[in-house]
Amino acid sequence: MVVVNRASDVSQLGDVDDLDEEPGEVIESAPPLRVGQERELNNSGLRKRLLHKGIGWETPDSGDEVTVHYVGTLLDGGTFDSTRDRNEPSTFTLGRCEVVGGLDQGIATMTEGEIALFTVPPHLGFGETGRQGVPPNSVVQFEVQLISWITVVDVCKDGGIIKKIMEKGNKNAQPGDLDEVLVKYKVKLDDDTVVAQTSEKGIEFYMKDGQLCPALPKAIKTMKRGEKVKLIVQPQYAFGEVGRDAESEFGLIPPSSVLSIDLELVSFKPVIDVTGDSKVFKKILVEGADTVAASEGATVTVRYTAKLEDGTIVEKKGFDGEDPLQFITDEEQVISGLDQAVATMMKGEQSIVTIHPEYGYGSIEVKRDISIVPPNSNIIYEVEMLDFVKEKASWEMSEQEKIETAGRKKEEGNVLFKSGKYQRAGKKYDKAVDYISEDGYFGDGDHKVVKALQVSCWLNGAACCLKLNNFNRAIELCSKVLDIEFHNVKALYRRAQAYMETADLVLAELDIKKALEVEPQNREVKLMQKNLKQLQGESNKRDATLYTNMFAHMRNDSSVATKKLKVEKAVDKKGDAEVVATEMGKVAVSSDSGMAVDS
After folding, report:
1. pLDDT tens per residue across span 387-409
2. Do 436 and 403 contact (CB within 8 A), yes or no?
3. Does the model's pTM come out above 0.90?
4. 551 with 519: CB under 8 angstroms?
């Protein structure tokens, strides 16, 4: 093996650290070498000639374990080292100075099966000292075949969990904190004693619940389906200084043990927090055949079985000859949790949806087709998305269709607003505006209609925001109206209302004055002006109290400073300890009094 010469080790490390680019970067950004072509790497003096093209495009990284055949020769053709003569390839860790620097850098540019000839200058080879068979300051050549490599990952970036990928997974997705995983593992001590092992079927668990030791879920999060790895786990990620007692047929794990774990991620089921508050979870059993989800406003066709947590079936749709259920998402045609979960599903997807009462039937008893749902019950749905038809996108519509759809969405929002469903009403108004956004081209005859629709939806959206205490959004929507119609009284009124709620009384007063200039007798605006004056009066009183306390504190501080000065003069003139004690006592009383006022 071409072990690095210690005399040249330091200089090589310095050269590597000084490089602006990682080995292989220049090759990746430059056109690929053709067979027979030669190129210098990284302006380092190291040259590479491609002799045989490899497979694929991936190259090993620093830290990976590479297996190579090589033949080292001098420029006169004399061989000084050869794995082929030994009929045994060499395995080493790339980028750890286990071989000469030229080989470290060169192999990092190779693909699997590639054969290349590297011409290595002395500072990346054996330096000024040389080695057996290599004179000092010699340029050498290595013909290298990259047989394979094992990707090595420092999972926690602290050396605590080293992962060697023995077999790559078949998909890009990796499990998350909520997902349910199926794994197989075998755990050994340094002496190869097996201290834990799953059955041939493996073990299934939720990532958030953990398994065996802290290292396992941390490593699994970096794996793909079908991936097989070997883990080297330090005690802090295993069983620490305590160890573990013997369990069933497995022996004890002594304190501070380093573990070797053979681990396979067989499969996993993604779990999604649909509502973001851990009250509606969707576990995907079978992934959909498409990459597009139904989304809001889609007409969906599903079949499902609904159960209580004890397994009692309360409802079925689409089974035993019954038609599947068809509904439009985001229209409150089913319970909110099911509605929101189905909107995230793809065609062909099968999922288990667990719904908290807040997104289900709440605190009331409800009779369904098969059984009764008791108050405050979690509902579990096994759902399959059979088909869906998405709402027609604006880019698929004519200009007239966009205007008609926007008008319809606005009317739907009005109905929801009158029912007190402000959140959903606001979404309808936003959708209406999206259809007639500035990106569309409307003829001269349609501009007035479009403008009126935009203004109406923004105003109504602002009214929803005020009901929902989303005052900043209300200000934003009213400002959009005023950019078009600077004299719009409703926009001025609602923006002033939002300003008052956010204690921005100066801006509220400006909007009220502008509104009264347009409609001097508007009763609602005049009433708001009266309320504003009351708020301003209360604000002024609070300010006056604040300033009074501040000035009182300043006067007390001044008094304390004056008395201290008197004490200093008394000490200078008389040196009388009794005078000092008396005056300091007065200062202390005065200071305590100031603190009381300040509080």
Report:
1. 999 888 888 888 888 999 999 99
2. yes
3. no
4. no
